[in-house]
Amino acid sequence: MASPARKGGVSLPERRGHSKKENNSIISKLSQSKLVSRGKLAAGDAAFVTKKLLRSTGRAAWIAGTTFLILVVPLIIEMDREQQLNELELQQASLLGTPAMGPPPQK
After folding, report:
1. How many helices (H) and strands (E) in the chain?
2. In which element (H, E) is residue 34 found?
3. Which domain of life is it from (predicted)?
């Protein structure tokens, strides 16, 4: 007699001459070996470490990006503004005929 069907699925009858306890195929022996179980464990550990590394790298990138936006971008804007002001003063001085203020003479 076949085993009772599980809820939501169909149970197939077992093959003749093969019971679940007598599964001696090469694939089943190989999948139950210590080498395969250690490989699965190592792959799981590698996936865990990779996930943690990616998460921490993402956090570091977020911190670096926001720090750059908060501290460096305003500095760049202010330096550009200062450069434009210096060029404007130099242009006005040349139009009015006053000598341009250059760098101080070196001794």
Report:
1. 3, 0
2. helix 34-67
3. Eukaryota
